Amino acid sequence: MYHSLLAQRVAENRPIRVGIIGTGKFGGGVVAQLSQMRGMEVSVIAELSVARARHAYTVAGRLPADALRVANNAGELHDVICSGQRAIVEDGMLLVQCDLVDVVVEATGIPDVGARMAYHAILNRKHVVMVNVEADVTIGPILRRMADSAGVVYTMVDGDQPGCTMHMVDWARSLGFEIVAAGRGTILYDDDAQGTPDTVPQRFGFSDELIERRTINFKMFNSFRDGTKANVEMTALANAAGLVPDVRGMHEPSVNIEEIAGAFSLQEEGGLLSQHGVVELANSVAADGKSLLPNPLKMGVFCVIRTDHPFIQEDLQTYNVAPGGHNNNYVLWRPYHLVAVEAPISIMNAVFYGQSTGSCLPTPTAECVTVAKRHVEEGELLDGGGGYTVLGHCEKASVARAERLLPLGLSVGARLKQDVAAGQAITYDMVELPTDSFIWKLRQVQDATV
Question: pTM for the whole thing?
Fold first, then answer.
């Protein structure tokens, strides 16, 4: 399917030209994977640190240093790409406005930057692969509507957990199954929610060499362990699949793989849920908060499907699909997600087929809201997901609107007007927002048109 189309691109000397904004661990990983493929190339990297971009090209991409050039304006960028060399720009606007770029991969992880870059990429009729989930859950619906109007694709990324789970949801729905719950595994120890960026090397076991070589972002990796990233990702999945969280922050029980279908069944069937059609998390840490379960999902993904047809139930059980919910629910699962490795699939789907891996619906069903990580005091500045002050929790969009809960993606730089207790959700009325940010302005437009 893809291979023959890529081969045709090679034969025509017309590779898919990819621009990557941000070369942290993910961006560098995409450069590495594309370096192994024919018919696609990373034509330009936008990165504030030229040294980091060079590192991505030469170490991850295995390109010689003389194959790279820094471009300082649109004309230079055009000439570098046309010459067959690879370009580095410090200004992402040069990348998104370049006529030679087919697909923009936004991988900064910074909500305001992601919003600005994706917005202008779509205005310039570029497909956008939105790795920046933090931006997507804040202003994804309006970007999706813009992309549809422009005739381009706005998509989540394959290989990341929302994209992998979306494949399972689409597969199940296409075959006529009902979605009871869909989500991902987590590894959440009892003290992880209080984690700070300073503790990332210790908690992950990262060496100084690995931190430098893979350009580890401590704040981003802290969000992986304090629970924020999982909540952000499940908000993205909910908005793409039309699902909701059953409760704020989801149940996230400690479950082995074979227990998932039972746990994510209705309460009257012995499960935790009050409704079907939810996003959820399966914690791999035992109830003691300290040890791993014997057969956990870890960083895999799952989908609990439902059928009341006896023939199909019999077949699923014959193939050892673990049941729950009085044998009406069954868990499909995948034990891995290959973040940057599978990202090119989203690029190819956008270019070759005009399709997304998954994209937020025009009207959101969920919101990632801001919750105090610790007792925070009047006058303090909030620092967003993965930082020292707040967590993100997945909540129903209807509840977030009714209670005026502050979206996590707008929390960076917000100043508290009152003390807030640990675990309390933060509302718009509790903060003074930096209203000069691009993402805030775009969110106002989104809220006015949803």
Answer: 0.97
